[in-house]
Structures are given as structure tokens and as C-alpha cells.
Amino acid sequence: MLKIDRDPQNLCPWFAERFSLALAECQSLGFRVSLFEGYRSPERQQELYDQGRVTRGKIVTHAKPFQSWHQFGLAADIAYRTPAGEWTWDGDFIRLAPIFQSHGLHWYGPGDAGHYECPASSLKAAKTLLDSVGLEGVWSDALKTESHQM
Fold this sequence. Notes:
Layout: H1 13-28, E1 33-37, H2 42-50, E2 75-81, E3 87-88, H3 93-102, E4 115-117, H4 123-133, H5 135-149
Antiparallel strand pairs: 1-2, 2-3, 2-4
């Protein structure tokens, strides 16, 4: 199993700031949530996609590499922490969604309850930008796209 990236510095800076502010607000209200996974390498994405299909376990994603905003540093997942520090997805994610949304993050509902993102114009365009000018180009495009939606 590849390492899970929980370093917010590997996310798009303006996305990481919004995400961190929303997370801090949730924590100040007593919700025991933390960043579970932020940036996800294409190899890690493939590993998750294979789970329940090629390897044992339940299916946890329908996204192959570069079909997820995680590969562009524009998505992050939260999970609850037990008092013993263990990760759990048993918690009220629905009550958290409005907090993250108030910080400009997109949420796709209970089916992907702990996932938040700020997508750019399209995944295909993001991959083209990544290949031609790098992540900063993707992040700039996402910020422009986000500014037009707010």
C-alpha cells in the first residue's frame, strides 16, 4: 500500500488555505475531523481504483488516475478521529458540508461524504495543462474557474 499524503503543503495553496479554514471551524465546533488524504499520486489513485476490482477490499473510488482532482492538488478528504486517534468514517459528515461549502469548496453529497474539491474547467484540460506547464498552470486555471462561479 502506497503512503497516504496528509501534508496540506502538497495541495494547491489557495485550496489548502480554504480547506484548512473550514477544517479549523469544524474542529472549533467540537467535530473530531482531520485531513485524511490530500494530494494523491497517479499510482496511489490506481491502487485505490484496483481495490475491490483487482485486490481485496471494497470499492472506494470509481476514478482512475487523472480522473480525480486529487492528482492536481485540488481535492482533499476528511475523516473523523476516535479518542484513541484511529480513523473512522462513522460521523455526521452532512453537518460539516455547509461549513466547507461556505469556504468555497465543492461537495458532491453523502455518496462521497468526506470529499471536498475546487475543480478547474475540466479534468482533460487540467491534464493538458499539467503536461504542458505544470501544476501551477492547473491551479491558476482552477482559481479563474472558481472566481467565475462565486
